[in-house]
Amino acid sequence: MVKLPFRYKKLGESVLLTNEAGQFYFLESDSFYLYCNRPEGLPDHIQNDLISKFFLSEEKDLEFALDETAIKLRTKKAFLQNFTELHIIVLTYACNSQCLYCQASSTVNKSEEHYLPLSTAKTICEFIIQSPAPSLKIEFQGGEPTLNFSVLMFIVEYLKAINKQYHKTLEFVVCTNLLSLNDEQLAFYKRHAINISTSVDGPAYLHNMNRISISGRSNYHQVVESYQKVCTVYDPRRVSALLTVSRYSLSHLRECVDAYVQLGFNTIFIRQLNPYGLAEQAMETLGYGLDEFLAAYEDVLEYIIELNKNGTFIREEFASIFLQKILTPYSSGFVDIQSPPGTVISCAVYDCNGTVYPSDEGRMLARCGDAHFALGSVLNDSYCDIFLSEKAVDLVKGSIVESSPSCFGCAFIPYCGIDPVREYQEKKLHRYHQSCEKYRFVMTLLFKKIQGDPEAEKVFFSWVTDIRDEGSSV
Amino acid sequence: MRSFHVITSDDLNERCIIGKIVHLKREYTTREYTIKVIGNRRPFHLVPAGMETRSTRTLRYDNDPHLSIGDVIESHNGVCYVHFSQTSNDACLVVNNDCNEACLNCPQVDRTKNPGLREKNIQLVTLLPSYVKSLALSGGEPTFDVPALLELITTIYKKYPTITLDILTNGIALSHNEDVEALASVLKQEQTTFCITLYGDTPAIHDRHTQVPGSFARVNLALHHLASFGYRIELRYLITKINFERIPSFIEYAYDNFPFIDHISLMGMEFSGYASQHADLLFVEQRDYIPYLKRAVGKAVIRDIPVFIYNHQVCLLPKELWRFTVSSISDWKRGYHERCKRCDIMGYCGGYFTTSSPVCVPSEVFPISLNYKGMEAL
Questions:
Q1: Which domains does chain B have, with CATH numbers?
Q2: How far does A408 lie from chain B, in Å, by closest CA?
């Protein structure tokens, strides 16, 4: 018997094994000792399990075992073949809301320099379409991108027109607070099957505490009104929402989930405050420690799992990013947690002035005065100048978990990733390894559930397969 | 393939006759069949034993074989084989009798080499009725002789351009990508399903059944080749005494390694042919593996892999598995107990293999009585 390459982590009484392709297996400590020293001594069914999961092989089958693992690794890293899929366009820095934690450093100032001009938008489109990826996802960001709606419409229509030559699959997402949704916009979304990503921070009192509207009307009620309009006129499946956790909502997350269920959402993304943009200055009043967040997250995840067990389908999106990678042979489409990193390989961001960044956080940082991640400009540089620049290549090379010395032994490597921009920011703020700590905590939580709670495992699978009603159970 | 004994006149005994039923005469208790024979204008008659007939070209039978017009039959050495029957759910061509594995569980009776098969199959295709929508290509091992298989497929497509083909294979010959490429140049992706049999989730367990070292590695490779050409794939897991504890982990194995498959079929065994000689090694009572079967189906369901249970008697399965069962045994070898006649869902149940040796036929079957509140379980 030959052991195949593996990593391990002690989880309570047992040991979690993972391999390069993301397969995993739990062993009791005694069995783990045998596995390491004398696998022939393991009971037959455990030996077979370990062979089946590619942790063990008979000598004569070694080549087969390595080939199969290589094929699975290639499937897990298939996102590398789609260079570059996600393109984020910042349409404006102007905004009609004054959220306390705004990370995009938006402004109520409506001067021209805060809007993406049509001419630059045209150049950006011509730039994006050169991407070799067969399908492209265009995300409109702000500020509030719908305040520059004519340019949004132009981009959608112009990209579709020039795509007639390229035959790529195009998908559009608008990240909007839904405050200024009107019938014309809704008709446009419907006509072009545009997805809507919005923010709901919980029940009215919490939402309005974080997200302060300029108009004086309750921000929450405007969002809900718009959301319901989208549901009736367009399609509820086209809207998803983020829940940004502030100090105010930290101890009320279960209430927030109830608000989501009540509104009819099937998904909820529980997001920690980002250490970028305005939020950095407001950290004193809005912020909280990582420990506090993780404790609250564990509690609310437990609550969400219970809701699902009792028949309410609601998926927590942050956990699902990891579950997708842990439970399925594939990766997740989430660019911030992948290795090699999503920056440049999977994602590029175009600012109002045509500057290109490797991620949304990169441009937010530039907005706060640190242009470290600016890769060039669509106005002066060619596609290859930017995407193959030394800066871009170095960024990727420096953030591969498989070759990072501090990650090397970690059992969670197959499911993890470093976001170089975030790491840079964490270093700058002397908050080292915050992402690492957070990811490890969440994955430990998920693996414990998978091991010890078959009903929770079922819920997790329903999140990654998106089967909401499986009929009578087996 | 269904077969029955015929009594032939001496000059026909040595010859192989292939033909199609063209005429059927109903008598009071039985029927008389006329067969149009390939390459001969004179029809042959198939008549009940003991009945006088004017024709010198006569095939006689003892028990009415219940044939219908359009059925394609072959008579050879006193045995009549029904190649195609209008009333059967089993339309299958035996591409050849050779095999590159020696599976312990092989239900095949005829394992002799048959050099005329290639030409015979081409003839059979011309005899088949024009409405045939799908055909299974079986063996032996249909990919044993790839050029012969290609020739047959080309002939089939010429007559039936839109036919769907199920190719029942052990996959090991398809571990050579050149062979898959050759097949792909002829075989239409959207009209083909490869039905590939696996016996385990580890090399040792699978190879123990096939008796060919390295066969598991090769079938894995074949699956990847077939997937890269976009073929639909059905995995068939045959449940035996050796592998029944591995059914749940097989589901995980299939999902981790072959996420591209169309569905998985969990199959009960037919103990005929070579398999009946290995009953002591392979036979396991259904009740002994039901907990494993149940866990396996549960794992498939949460992973969104369509899963079916073939060749099982519904009354011996727990209710929650009923909706996964398929009445899959070919009609001519499907049997029911006397008791089954009182069962409310006999028509839904697949029965058991009459071809299996009697010790391997479940004896505990019982009639199910539906109180109609329980109906939604179906």
A1: 2-82 (2.40.50), 89-377 (3.20.20.70)
A2: 24
